[in-house]
Fold each of these.
Amino acid sequence: MAAPHLNTEAEEQLQGLAREESQFRQFVRRFARNKLAVVGLVILIIFYAVAIFAPFIASEPLDARVNLAERFQPPGSPGHPLGTDNLGRDLLSRMIWGSRISLSVGFVAMGVAVLLGTLVGSIAGYYGGTWIDIILMRIAEAIDVIPVFFLLVTVVSVLEPSVYNIMIVIGLTSWPGLAYIVRGQFLSLRQRDFTEASRAMGATDARLIFRHILPNAVAPIIVSATLRIGGAILSEAGLSFLGLGAPPPAVSWGQILSVSRTFLKQAPWLMFWPGLAIFITVLAFNFVGDGIRDALDPKLKR
Amino acid sequence: MARYLTKRILNMIPLLFIVTLLSFGIMQLAPGGPEYVILSAEADAMSDPQQVEALREKWGLNDPVHIQYFRWVGNMLQGDFGKSYYYRLPVKEVLASALPNTIRLNFFALVLIYAISIPLGVISAVRQYSKTDMIVTATAFAGQAAPSFWVASLLIWGVAMNSGGLIPTNGISTPGITFETYGWLSVLADRAKYMFLPLIVIVFGGLTGLTRYMRSSMLEVLREDYVRTARAKGLAEKVVIYKHALRNAVLPILAVSGGLLSSLVGGSVIIENVFSWPGIGRVAWQAVNNRDYNVSMAVMLLSAVLTMIGYLLVDIAYVWVDPRIKYD
């Protein structure tokens, strides 16, 4: 199908209506026009592919043997494009293995947060103004009011740091923001005609919440979740940096950074590359999140 | 106003109650229960079951959980936060010596963030899509995505290590440089020197959200009718922007400063750790590493209370600055 050349947003919407183009196709086209978002998406696809195929890409296995003769090889040494670490292991391989934790944290933590935030936000919003709403929102505010890192550091240390604990705890501490958004959506949607109509037809509360109102609130949830994945990745990196990450042999970008502190003078590359990887990943998620937001709701675009 | 304030402050009580429940509850999650945390600090008591039992009795750990909780809250209400096992001092003293350092650093950071982000946001909005705007927006994106500890490490490596000792990488002051021995000018220079790198890192991280927010707020205001009116009656562009538009665009910025404050306090755990800054962020980290749970709980509570006070001040300022808001 030859795509017609479209100039203005209005024209495009008219044509879209005329051809009854699916919402998804409209979304894809709008997203594709945002260069930064596309670049971000491509970067993420490459990074995730590397993480998934790590065993085939990394030149050294995860449990690479300590080789003190090769320690602190600078970037560009034969066989070690990014150099080696304090134990003589290949930095690039370590980073490829580390990407597995660093990159999954964002999704798992956000999954937990979206689940909880949506559930709490929907219930609070649907019963807006009642005691259920008041109690749920007070709990959300209480979690929100404790600066995230104080909460994270304490909980993670109490629960023996492990990859899963860290992911779940980051999720458990970051749902309130999502709950507020979902609640706001519900407060406005529950008074619309279609809700009233379903209620009049005898739909139960649960059916109203999950079948009728929630699907209408999906867009803002997706946008806000994407924009927060970067934050979750930064949180994991921060915890690992503080020495509260998953214990070895597990490795993450934040953990390599944490080790690099001791060798900053001899081996600055141990600090530079993992940090750059985190930076680029978070940047890419933020670009993609902005792109999704603009593509879902062109009205919001500034 | 008085009624609004009372209501606002009364609202903080249930919040504070839930925060104490959370802090206390987290401690109950410790493997083997909190007694192991408390008792393991008492050195070799663990090996002797009789001694463990005696200590449990002494610390009241045989009482039901809710009794323990109320005792803990009751003690705090009387200003007793318990004892730090690591520092071997009352928790209150540990916090009292650390808190001023955190407040000092973040006060300067906050002032700088506002002083830089408001003009940047305005310039960016007034010259939308210009080169300046592009650079500002790109920097904002970068600051949001760059891990603070990475920026800090880069600065330590690139700036401090090459400064020939001029810019220190950690600590808060040079021992020996005091008012008595060197005079206030050297003291001031010395303290500023130590604050230099931490401030850059905090400001770079905090600047970004605020600049982007200021930009979009200004863009919105510039489209308002009263701005067009101001232009139409022939006012100079400078007057239009800085007297008419800016005033209204700054208001939403106030509303987000509570969140900024919270993120600054939270971020201090990392910043103070990197730069060995003796504030509550560092105390929190040490407490966690040494299983000094009385300190951990107190720090969590304190940081929550600080944030709540921050939000309250922001709300008051908001109502006070914007006469359109009715407080009832």
Amino acid sequence: MSEAIQSAKDSAMLAIKNAADLAGLRVLSADLNKKDSPLNSFKSEMGKLASVEDKRSIGQMLNAAATEIAAALETRSSEFADNEIAARIASESLDLTELLVQRRRGHSHIVTQATQRLEDVFIGLGFQIAEGPEVETDFNNFEALNMPKSHPARSEFDTMFLEYGEPGSVLLRTHTSPVQIRVMKSWKPPIYAIMPGRVFRRDTPDATHMPVFHQIEGLVIDRGITFAHLAGTIESFTKAFFGSEFTSRLRPSFFPFTEPSAEFDIRRADGEWIELGGCGMVHPNVLISGGIDPEEFSGFAFGFGIDRMAKERHKVEDIREMYTNDLRFLRQF
Amino acid sequence: MKILNSWLNDFGEFGNDAEKLSAAMTSLGLAVESVTIVGTPVKGVVVAKVLRTERHPDAEKVHRVYVDAGDGKELHIWCGAFNMKPGDLIPLATLGTTMPDGRVITPRGILGVESHGMLCSGTELGLMADSDGILILPNDLKLGSDLFSALGIKSDCVFDLDVTRNRPDCNGYLGVARDLGAHLGVKVVSPSGDKTKKGPGRSMKVTIADKDRCARYNMTVMSGVVVGESPTWIARRLTNCGMRPINNVVDASNLVMLELNQPTHAFDAEKVNNGFKIRCARPKETLLTLDDQVRQLETTDLLICDGKDTPIGLAGVMGGASTEISKQTTTVALETAWFEASGVAQTATRLGLKSEASMRFERGVDPHGIDHAVSRFASLLRESCPNLVVHGGGADIKEKTLAPKQKIVNLRVSQVTRILGTKLSPKAISAMLAKIGFVTKSTSSTKSATIKVAVPSWRPDCETEIDLIEEIARHYGYENLGKIVPQSTMHGRLSTVQQRRRDIHELVLSMGLSEAMPNPFLAPGDLVKSGLLEDNAIRLANPLVYEESVLRTSLRPGLLKAITFNLSHRASNILLFELGHVYPAGSKDSADGLPDEYESLCLVAVGETSALALDWWSQLSSVMGFGAQLDQTSVESGYHPKRSAMLRRGKQVLGCVGEIDPRVLAHNQINTSVACLELNLSVLLVETPKVVTAKPVSRFPRSDFDLAFSVPNSQTAGAVLKALRQAGGSELVDLELFDVYRGAGLPADCRSVTFRLCLQASDRTLTDAEVTAIRQKCLDAAAKLGAQLRN
């Protein structure tokens, strides 16, 4: 009997090995598991065996054969599954270079990029951002900034006035400084603010000037603010924005809204000085315009052009190019 | 203001270290725009004498000049200038000389005759900015000597200073020297005046009618004048400072102005009738000015009139032609005055007559420097007019409006520390101020010390304490005040609005649109071309050009222009956006009197349809946490009336979405559709999205089913969707329009719209009966809108 079992097992194993595919294997598996399959039929014949010993040894032999066949079925089945998935993977081959789409992210204007970089640096220095309208009153743009109606410095601003309200009363702001007045009035000191935005001057466009351009202005008002704090802030900004190899200096100048006033220059690692902007201690008259007591608080302000910064960073030859809205230009950045 | 190094040294021993002087001026706030070297000696140029001149029959534009260069030999030179006569001394560039412009002098001549050198003009030698003809030299020079050493000309340096408005004194050498002297420890002296005894009195009657406009008027008569050329040194100084020498009288006046910042005006005394009267112009009065122009005057113009009340000059701006100095003039009446600044400014600006003199009156001159200016003028004129007589008498009227010689300003020592952050003793402060001529008197030596500062009249800009603090800072040195980073007591961050703006900007970029920045100024008609009204657009009162005279009320015209521009350059994938302000007129009685300016966002895509614009909107609305209803009943003008919708939220209009009106496209030469989304950010940005409270996710099964309706074309899918949502109640957790079909198998004027619904309860499994009931409610609601369930 044992020989018969062995041969039945061998023929089952051979059949498993020769199965052509998963479907064939499934049929084979069903056949082998049938009650009347060659191996299973030995089970019913076991009762006919006389000795307990024989029953035990034949029983063990049958179980071992069944386990072996089941394992073989399992192995063969996973072989087929692996082959099948491998074949599917092979057939799914894809040339990704065909699919590389040209849809790209859009391009942020270089002036916006510069503005955001500047904002981020000042936020890091503990500043908040204030905003104001681009159409302003003569009062906020000039009078409140220590430039009364007849002030000669007004003529230097090349103001664009609007046909709106009383003649000469409404204008396109010539600098971001009117936001200072708005901030002083609506926030209470301490004030650590920057004010970026669009400004307007009646300048004929050329390679370095546009009638519409952008400035950023800073204002700090607190108790005990001194000129040294102004110089320290400029220095700290210079290093944070341009790099630690840069330094800054202040040299005396004149603006009606600050006193003492200064121009600030930055020095590149190669030793060259670059003029950047104007600054100074907020003039007492300006603090008064903003409703702040100059005997209690002091402060400083600074400002410079953003466009020029973007222009120089990207080596744009002609500032007008930045405003043609030519996609060939915009897409470079 | 151009400062010549050698001239500056007349005021003190400043030396010739250009770099040191330039650095000193910079640190004082006298910004040095440029440093130019002038008068560099040219080797090989000698003093020669003209022997005779001769025309050549075949040469019209040149003549032959024979000269002696000191060795008795006759040299022949071809020369294109004719201003010399035999006996004149002239500069000769000998053969082999390299001229300042790089030319090398060779014997090359014309008509086969060689030239033994070249006769030179002042310009060619780098001595003058501008000159006519060959430089005629003083007669006492030695023949054959090196020109530059004979004239004592050394290379010199011109500092071009950008003098700020608050430093009128620095429009004169004296002011610059005073500041520099204080900084470098150099003693400063003003050049000497005329020491000759005054001549007999010659009275000149002067009356001032408008005393506010003229606080001091000095009229000094000088006779024995011979009008001619100035001495070379005066001419050279003027040219090096950018002024053209005219004659000895005008040049002396200009030199005094440059030195002392005091303009003067010389009248031909014999042409002035009966003295002077200073008054404002009367309506319709005119004056023929020095430049032969008839000037229409206004009542704000201050005039110098003669004793007969006839205008002979515009005070501080320009003299009249009738009393001009001429070759025949022998007696001059010199006006040295203080005119009120803004009046001069107004007249000079209106008439376009900005001059060196008017600029100085505008900025401010020292009314107490007048005596020295008159005396200095006389001493300079005496160099070319040895018989000059300065007559006594004349006139010197000082009105009550005249500023005092010194003005007292109180300075609290504590304020100096408070503003500058550096503690300075009263003694140190006084010493610093004394160096620039500010006399100080300390009231106490305690902590609350106040210093009384007497500010001299040449510093009209120093009026208050803060002005003095600036002076102290300048002379102490900005670089010595330290650098301290203040500890901000605020938290640095973006506001909610700013953060939301950045989020929007970021999203729009990621949707593939590039940022444009069109000009906010439009041409009249641009708005109409974009389908917009022009009624609420504001015009510029003084535009640069007519094409940029209207303020935009929408971002669309600018972007349409950008599209047209890019299409003309055959760009593909034109996707642009702008985030910027628009400025429609507001109601006239708005509190601040300003227009209704607001921030707007506009997105455009060429060749795209409303589908893309809606996709933009749904992405933006989800980023902003902000919904809106689409309202197609009426759309913003300029949009396609049938393919666009207003975005509404209650009564608020958030913007418009859709496509540009084909008529607008045609006006802008755009021959394909343009998808457009425009949003009013002033509404969208200020909204703070609510913080969402978490709800537990339902653990009960969901029931999904589709409903396909045939919907009349007159009914919007949105309305059906809304009806379904309402009918579905709280168990309808998801509702989506997922298919629209037009075509066969549908009633006329209908399309099929399919919705996918998902029902689910949070606390139980919905029964079949419940699902059926809700489904039926939905069907009933849709039927009310004419939407019939399709089989």
